[in-house]
Amino acid sequence: MTSVPPSQKPLLGAAPVACSACRRLKMRCVNAENPPCARCLRTGRRCVVVPSRRGQQQSAASSRKGEPPASSSLSNEPLHTLDSQPNLSAAPSNSAGGPAWNLTMLPQAQARALQSPSSRTEAHSSPANTLHPKHSTSPGLPSLYSSSPLDVLGSAATQPSSGEAWPRQQLTSRDTSLGGSWVNSVAEDILVEYIELGVQCSFRAKILYCVPVIDDADLENPLYVIRRRRPLAYCTSFVASQFIPGSANVRQQLLSHVSDFVETTNGPLPEDENVLWTQLQALAVLYAYRPAADVFELPGAAPTPGPLNHWVLKHSIEAFALRARLHRSIDGLRSLLLHSSDSPQISETPAFHKYIYWLWLATMSHHFSVMTRTPPTIREDSSISSAVDLLRDVPRPSRVTRILSEIDLYILWQHAGRSVPGLAEWWCTPSDTMSVEDVQAVLEDMEGALEVWSQRWGLRGEPKTTVANVDMARNGAVSFHFLSTRFCISTFETRYLLEKTRSALDEDATSQPGLVQVARESVLKSVKAAHACSRCLVDLPPLRREFARYMAEFGYAYMAFCCLYIIQAYELFGSALPALGSYLASVEEVATFLTELAVASNTTPRLYGDLTMRQLRRATGRMEGARVDSHSWTGQDVENMDGHQVVPASLRASSAGGEHLLSTSAPSGDPGVLSHLNPPRGTSPLLFSIFDPSWGPLLR
């Protein structure tokens, strides 16, 4: 036998070919060239042969003598537990009786995950996306009741400033195929470190805030989670990796396991309740951090793999929850409340956990519906509407109280919608059959109900809250949903009044002057609500503001949408309502804040901030490099606005070159033609439609 220099000597057991079971056990694989191998034949196990990288690169491996093979035991073990559970296999491509997690199917799953250079095409071609076109053409309706926030963001994002091109990420060959050797180059010890980092305390407190169905105790023992709750470990680490600089390589390797896990949940449900709950929690982590930018074209955003696509994740988790009968979980909880005298222990039961999970899915369905202007897939029923009363006297952690507050707010909106057609059906064209007086009366009652709700849940730190265990110091999300709900409802009133004003103008009705004044007040009210919602994070104390880096992407998207609402209101009504210009300084402050939130691979806050800044500069006609005065806005500043402030000098539109976005001169002749005006003309036309441009002259 020819001698081999020491530097080239093969490592013992580093066979060019070996099955995954032998690699996991770090044993020599006999007869791997003609499977099944001797060990798998003896145990009756399915023999899956995986080529060894070490066999192909012995020279590189020789410098690391004594280390385990690069195809680690961690990545080869089943994801749900250390023991293989065939009843969890569920993958259509697996043969009957095969193990649940098979490395040979990973390249196939990964190829499906990135079939095209960008997942945008896949997202736009999904059946659900046909419900809302990418560019809404519905005129006459502002905000949520005309086009979804994501449609507005997408429309604005696809039109950069003149002479500029959006930076686009170029995908390399390694990005389009996850099955190559590059993915498998991360050593086991590094992968373990990332999994431990994903479940350790620092990230647990920041990331899992957006996943209230997971308690701190669920991840307090990282080693146990890694060994016995593998899907949860992988999914938590995958989300955490986007916030850790230099983690792109490890994130890609985790992606293969996460994608495979999502596909596996389409198969038979596990018989073990603990395994089922682990899978539900793992899906919740992914669902809470699903990207918003794959619903619309956000240039510069990283592509989303197919299994983690927005629509795919939503379908997967809701279908899995329905198959697990979470929608009937209230039955088991009611039985416990009826027969158990030890109420503190109820919050530790599986029935309680499943019911809270179902309520959380209902809130997520509502938020998704608002952002995409599609009907919610989980509608209000008695199991949801009775949640607050059912759990009123049950001791519970603050994360559960937060879910109940969102349910209560959602029910409040739904009840108001029964009195005003279209108020709670933002995906439909609103009806105008009600009189202005009737609509205003209902919306005034709704405004009062929102104030009562805020006191009930201690939103402003009220000492006499009617709901126990409300920790607003930790539940800033409750305040955000309150502000966003108030903003959405105010835009409904604004749209309704502007439409009625235009109709009165067309008919030359005597009520038109009175409607104009009411519409002015409504526009200012909705802009003020948008301003408050956009600043929900900016006005937080510095220590709490740090947590904003780790929130889900939808929060950033909604803040940007509120800013765009203010910008377009200023474009259309700035001449009639000079006070609107005073909000532009706050818009720039919010945009700058978003750009500073980016961390590691989580770059979407910067993209939303840049998008907002571009639209602000177009709307104000500023020269490149001009900046607004750094002015810290407070709630008192807004209250003191008297409606007569003018646009700050640094934000005034430049009149040079005729770059006015909105003509301030009304045409002569019949005033009725005001309702038929074309969109304002100029070198910088309106880029997106929140308001109908023909409303611009109505408030003069």
From TrEMBL:
GO cellular component, one term: nucleus
Subcellular location: Nucleus
PROSITE patterns: ZN2_CY6_FUNGAL_1, ZN2_CY6_FUNGAL_2
Compositional bias (Polar residues): 70-85, 113-129
Superkingdom: Eukaryota
Pfam families membership: Zn_clus
Chain segments carrying region Disordered: 51-144, 152-171
Coiled-coil ranges per UniProt: none
Keywords: DNA-binding, Nucleus, Transcription, Transcription regulation
MF annotations from Gene Ontology: DNA-binding transcription factor activity, RNA polymerase II-specific; transcription cis-regulatory region binding; zinc ion binding
UniProt feature, compositional bias: Low complexity: 52-63, 86-100
InterPro entries: prtT, Zn2-C6_fun-type_DNA-bd_sf, Zn2Cys6_DnaBD
CDD domains named among the record's database cross-references: GAL4 (cd00067)
Main location: nucleus
Ranges of residues in domain Zn(2)-C6 fungal-type: 18-49
Name of the protein: Zn(2)-C6 fungal-type domain-containing protein
